[in-house]
Amino acid sequence: MLLNGKAFKFGNDINTDYIISGKYKFKTLDMKELARHVMEDLDPHFYEKISEGDMIVAGSNFGCGSSREQAPLAIIYAGVGCVLASSFARIFYRNAINTGLPVIECDTSKIEEGDLLQVNLEKGIVLNKSKNREIPITPLPQVMLKILSDGGLIKHFQKYGDFKFD
Amino acid sequence: MGKTMAEKIFSQHSGEDARAGDLVIARLDFIMGQDGTAPLAINSFNEMGGEKVFDPSRVAFVIDHSAPSPNEGVSSLHKLMREFALKQGILLYDIGHGVCHQLIPEQGHVLPGDLVIGADSHTCTYGALNVFSTGVGSTDLAAGIISGKLWFKVPETIKFLCKGVLPPGVLSKDLILYLIGDIGADGATYLAAEYCGEAISAMDVEERFTIANMAIEMGAKAGLMEFDEKVNKWVAGRAKRPLRPVFADPDAKYVEIRQYDVSQLEPQIACPHTVDNVSPVGQVEGLPIQQAVIGTCTNGRINDLKIAARILAGKKISPGVRLIVAPSSRQVFLEAMNEGIIQILVEAGAAIVTPGCGPCVGTHNGVPSDGEVVLSTANRNFKGRMGNSRASIYLASPATVAASAVAGRIADPRPFFL
Fold first, then answer.
1. ipTM of the assembly?
2. Identity of the residue in A15, A69, A91 whose CB atom sits nearest the CB atom of B40
3. d(CA B87, CA A140)
4. Is the pLDDT of residue A1 over 80?
5. CB-CB under 8 Å, A99 with B143
6. How many CB atoms lie within 10 A of CB B87?
7. Domain map of chain A by residue range?
């Protein structure tokens, strides 16, 4: 799977309240509506600025805080193609895979705002086309790769009716 | 090679010789969802083709985050939860019962040695009872309530060995804030934490919940504590199943053992906008506050309200301050009434709100205004957490919050404990 998009940079410890504020998430299950508010407290115009497939690029501990699955879902419904971070908080990481959002753990320190990126999940490489530089990806555990390749845990269960990793 | 508490619980629940790093599919003893996560889990349940919950007596939904409902959007999600609970016969704790992380242990649903998931990041709270409990998202929750199982990567463990006894006026909240400040918000990511030592043993179970509750704020998957006579006594009378406590082996392998002497610890404050931005109270003393909050799954228990009452008895809160108190459960509320604590708090000027999450998550019960400073006993101070990104949230113990509500500014509570 090849993903192409432009980098939107964020810092360390981007928590799930920043990704989608509690004041919105309790009100509705309409993810398209929630998506309009994604990252709003950090950048009120983020939703309008991004194009389909663009990428969130962050530092360490991305997605820390609450267990809200609305966080990866709001990112997906906003049209973001994937999230790259030097590390992820555990619950967000699971939720992202479960909902089918590719999360890429790699060294993001040399990526700048607006860089054009291409992610090759099979090869485990991010190509920074603007800087002509390759960045290796920390491989996903097999179980997560299986869930992601099934299209998320819902589709995995639709297919197998249970956990099936053999 | 010996095992950590986490390795033992995963071994017992997977039927395998589970070691850190192993991927296991493990049986779940209890599963919890709340009104911020359960509605989405119901959607996932339906999409997955779920028909029946694996065991209705082992699944609870709690309506606590925006309860009673502040608007029609929330109301419709609450209704969805009630209908699902009725249809499936699962436990439902509706508005006013309290915060999930007080209710679930209080009602005896989680017991030493259990493996528990909750669709709420602070599910790690039950670690104080020697339970491996961890927060998950809605889809993992749905998979859990369909199958009674979930896959896990058995975590490595980091041990926090806390020696000495906390000085008067310094509470378990101060200790966990200090530990988070020391190790950082991602210092224990992907790890299970074990909190032990003389300082933890000296605490009662209620105080221990405060520490386990905030394990997630250092990134930990769970925050486990040893089973002892205090835990045994606390769960006696609540337990509906046999206890299967686990003990770490003396030769268990830890990724790190960190040692602390708590006997000189000062009251701690987490400053905006991250929980690991922690200072001793002296460094922020004197900062005017507009809102004080006592409650939440971190510090809304009876011992917390007692401490607040001890400070507020016969006093009035500062005219410029609003004090909001949310008892963590109906039972706590009743106990506080019977003991005259509610009387003291209300006479001091507190506004008591429904047992539940209170204003912690920014949906109701006290959203701060632009530029305001809030001092809260909650566990998160992220920008916008309480519903306004232009307010600043500081976190502290119930003693510090009560003392500050009286002073009108951030104050050291220790003079009240001389």
1. 0.94
2. A69
3. 38
4. no
5. no
6. 10
7. 2-138
